[in-house]
Specification:
Number of helices: 3
Number of domains: 1
Radius of gyration: 16 Å
Shape: elongated
Mean pLDDT: 80
Strand content: under 5%
Structural class: mainly alpha
Largest sheet: none
Length: 98
C-alpha cells in the first residue's frame, strides 16, 4: 500500500509542476502584452490569481504528501518547499519585471 501512496504523491507533484509552469507562462504572456490591445495594461487581478495558482500547485502536493506519507524523509520535504518557493518567487519576479 505505501507504493500506491507514493505514486499518488508523485502524480500530484508532476501535475502541480505542469500547472505551475502553465501559470508562469500565462503570467509572462499577460505581462508582455501577448493577445491584448496595444494600449492596455496587464490585468493585475489576473496576474495575482496566476501567482496564487502557482503557489497552490506547490502547496497542494505538499499537503497531500503530509497526509499520505507522514513518516517520509523530512529532509526531502525541505527540498520540495525550497524548490516550490523558488518557483513562486520566479513567477513574482516575472510579474515585477513586467
Amino acid at each position: 500500500m505505501p507504493a500506491a501512496k507514493v505514486i499518488v504523491v508523485l502524480a500530484a507533484s508532476a501535475l502541480g509542476a505542469l500547472l505551475a509552469a502553465g501559470c508562469g507562462l500565462a503570467a509572462l504572456f499577460e505581462l508582455q502584452g501577448f493577445g491584448r490591445p496595444r494600449d492596455s495594461d496587464p490585468r493585475t487581478l489576473y496576474v495575482v490569481a496566476l501567482i496564487l495558482g502557482a503557489a497552490a500547485c506547490v502547496l497542494v502536493p505538499l499537503a497531500l504528501w503530509n497526509v499520505l506519507l507522514p513518516d517520509a524523509a523530512p529532509g526531502a520535504k525541505i527540498i520540495v518547499i525550497v524548490a516550490g518557493l523558488l518557483v513562486v518567487l520566479g513567477v513574482l519576479g516575472v510579474a515585477a519585471a513586467g
